[in-house]
Every structure is written in C-alpha cells, then in structure tokens.
Write a structure and sequence with these properties.
Helix 6 runs parallel beside helix 7, helix 7 runs parallel beside helix 9 and helix 15 runs antiparallel to helix 16. The chain has 412 residues and is α/β, with parallel strands linked by helices. Strands 5-8-9-10-11 form a 5-stranded parallel β-sheet. Helices cover 45% and strands 11% of the residues.
C-alpha cells in the first residue's frame, strides 16, 4: 500500500477476510516499512508488516508456516500479539542482488503494456531529508545502503523481457542510476550500455539522476548511453533556492541544477522531467520568489502544478522528525495524509492555500497533469525515433515540441 491506496487496501482486506479469516495477511513496501505500527493501526485486517527488503523475510515466513514453526520469530516483521504491536529485529540488507530471481512479470502475460519497470540497484548515495524510499533498504542504520546488480544480470533480464513480451521500453526505477557517485558507478552504467550495444538490442530506457553527478559523467559514457537507448532523465532538482536545497539535504547547488538540466535537455537533446518542490514546512517568502524566478528562467512553468507542489512528509524521514519536533504536524496528519502540516511562516501558509485554490479552479478533472504527461511522452517518442532517424523531420519535430512547451508556459 501507498498513502493514495491505503483505503482501497483496507476495503479489499475486509472482503478477503470474509472469504477466509484463518489466512495470514501481510503488507510490505516503503510506506509501511517506515510506519509499521501506524500501518497496523490503520489497516485493521492486516496481521503483520514486512519491513525493508521483503524477499528473504517472505521466504522465511513461508518456511515457518509450512514447517509449523512459530512465524512470530521471523526477522524483519512487525505484528499484533495480545492487543500489542511487536517489532522484531530487522533483517540485514541483501548484499548480492544477482542472487535474486528476476521479477515475475505476471501482468505482462495478461495485459500487453508499452513500458516495463526494472530495478538495477537498491539504495542511494544521496541524503535527501524527505526521501523514504532509499532508506527502506537499511532501516535500522538509517543509511541509504547502495548495492547494484551486474551489467550482465541486468541485460539478461532486459533481453528476456524483449523476447518474452515484445516490449522494448524500460523505466529504470533506481533512486539514482549513476550511483555510487564515483568512477565505480560511472563504470557500471557504461558497462550496462556496452552490454546492450554488444547484443544489438533495440531498446529504450529512462532513468533517475542527481544533478551534481550529471556533469561529472564522462561525455564518452553519455554517448554510449544515448546509443544504447537512453531517452529520458528524471532529474531531482527540487528547488531554485540554495537555502531550500539545504533544507532538503541536497548535494547540488542551484547553479549545478541549471547546468545539469541544460546539458541534458539542450546538449544531449533527451527528455528531462524536473523533480521540483515549491513548498516545505520551513519555506520563506524569499525562497518562494527564488523558486518562481527559477521556474520561469528554466521554462518549467508549462507544468503549472509546479507552483503548488508541496513536499510529502513520510514517517521516519529527517524532515518529518524536524517538523514533528517543531510541532508543525496538524491533527489530520497521518499515514494517508503526508501533506497535512503547518508552515512555520504564516505568509507562506496563506500563499500555499491561495495557490491550491487557483490550481483547483483551472485544473479541471486533472487535465493539467494529463497535458504535461502528454508533452513528455510525445517528446520521448521523438527522441526514440531520433536513434535511427536523424533527418530534418526529426529535428523539426523536436523544435516544434520545444516551441509548444514555451507556448504552454505563456498561459500561466
């Protein structure tokens, strides 16, 4: 479950319990790993939570149940017992990810999609104060322990998916594809590109990256990534204010964000989606104006929701703990309401509410988000076409899309 689906899961569990109340029901994932106690309190029909990486814990649970041993002794779980919530010791992170079987693509056997998510690594070398996902891989230490699969193992899986399901577009969901942020990490992504090219695979992929690393990656590696099918990057910019970037624990500066974005979008010519947060509990009016100026300078106003984006405060993250300590969490705050917090500045509080009201007026039925997604999907497809056809038509199409983006921004 995720905060947007907790209620759906809760309703689903009620019906499952009616069918067979003797079964053991568990939940896992980022949202419940950081808030196991709160998740069990909210999801009354869930018996236990699997915290952190779930593969080995799920296997141990199964073996204990099949062998009629006490499953409550299993590492990495939180469960109910006699009206109390008990948390067992966490399980250590899995060091060798190549040992894990590939994800079972059950849904692709029944529903033919156009894009497949694939994970090549776990953890992150960054330390963003709002991020819960990377920390799920080392809950006790509070670190973002990074481990990566080998290039051969990754491309073997990609090749298998292409052969089995005739899908050649991949969304790589690693927190930062280039990690670890050093020659080792850069060599790894080069090896993946080399492996794709050596096998002659006609594939395309998009990744997530951090700005401070983009310009450190050798241009020769970028060339190989583009030739092997890189068409898009989700870049974690987050803010146009250096003060706000410090609040978020970002490593990159505003200037590095600008340079990284322009390099990817203008020089490499690939699709770039900017991760951006307009408001956090400690935003100041000066930071807000810096953000607005940055958005306009970078031409990001085409995605007008950028003006209302608020940071999500997830249980256990450093930014959550700071807001909790400063009594900024509202009574409504909870596992399904991560944005129910107050601002330290009354002026920002009023401004955020006013902008939310405007967005609701102009964003009928969520069409604004749809239009933004349409732009990125279309631009990405043009970049895909460019891989094999660098004709004048392709150049013209990219220019028309960039002009369209500017035109979209003029209406903000």
């Amino acid at each position: 479950p995720f905060y947007t689906t907790f209620d759906i899961v809760a309703d689903f569990m009620v019906e499952l319990k009616k069918l067979n109340s003797s079964l053991l029901f568990c939940a896992g994932g980022v949202a419940v790993s950081h808030a196991a106690k709160e998740a069990l309190e909210y999801l009354k029909d869930i018996d236990l939570i699997i915290r952190g990486e779930g593969e080995l814990t799920l296997c141990e649970l199964m073996f204990r149940i099949l062998q009629k041993r006490d499953w409550r002794k299993c590492l990495g779980i939180t469960y109910r017992e006699n009206g109390q919530i008990v948390t067992n010791k966490s399980r250590n992170p899995i060091e060798d990810l190549d040992q894990l079987p590939w994800a079972e693509r059950v849904m692709l056997k029944h529903y033919h999609g156009s894009k497949v998510r694939i994970q090549t690594a776990r953890g992150c070398a960054g330390h963003c104060t709002f991020c819960a996902e990377s920390r799920v891989f080392d809950l006790d230490a509070g670190k973002t322990s990074w481990r990566g699969r080998t290039a051969k193992n990754i491309v073997d899986e990609i090749e298998n998916i292409v052969a089995q399901h005739a899908i050649n577009f991949f969304s790589i969901v690693d927190e930062s594809y280039e990690d670890p942020a050093s020659g080792i990490g850069f060599k790894r992504i080069e090896n993946i590109s080399d492996e794709i090219l050596a096998r002659g695979l006609d594939v395309y992929y998009e990744v997530m990256m951090r700005s401070e690393n983009v310009l450190k990656i050798p241009i020769s590696v970028w060339d190989k990534m583009k030739k092997s099918g890189l068409v898009g990057v989700l870049l974690g910019i987050e803010s146009g204010s250096n003060n706000a970037l410090k609040t978020y624990g970002k490593i990159a500066t505003v200037n590095e964000n600008i340079e990284a974005y322009n390099f990817l979008y203008e020089q490499l010519g690939i699709n770039v989606i900017a991760g951006f947060i307009m408001f956090n509990p400690y935003s100041t009016i000066n930071e807000y104006y810096e953000n607005v100026d940055f958005v306009k300078k970078m031409g990001l106003e085409y995605s007008f929701r950028v003006f209302s984006n608020k940071v999500h405060l997830y249980y256990g993250t450093p930014l959550y703990k700071r807001a909790e300590r400063d009594l900024l969490l509202k009574k409504q705050y909870g596992i399904i309401h991560p944005m129910e917090y107050k601002f330290a500045s009354d002026e920002i509080e009023r401004l955020s509410e006013d902008i939310d009201s405007i967005i609701q007026l102009v964003d009928k039925d969520g069409m604004g988000e749809y239009v933004t997604d349409y732009y990125h999907d279309t631009y990405e497809r043009i970049v895909m076409h460019e891989k094999t056809d660098k004709s004048e038509l392709t150049v013209k199409l990219k220019k028309e899309m960039k002009d369209l983006r500017k035109e979209m921004g003029q209406y903000v």
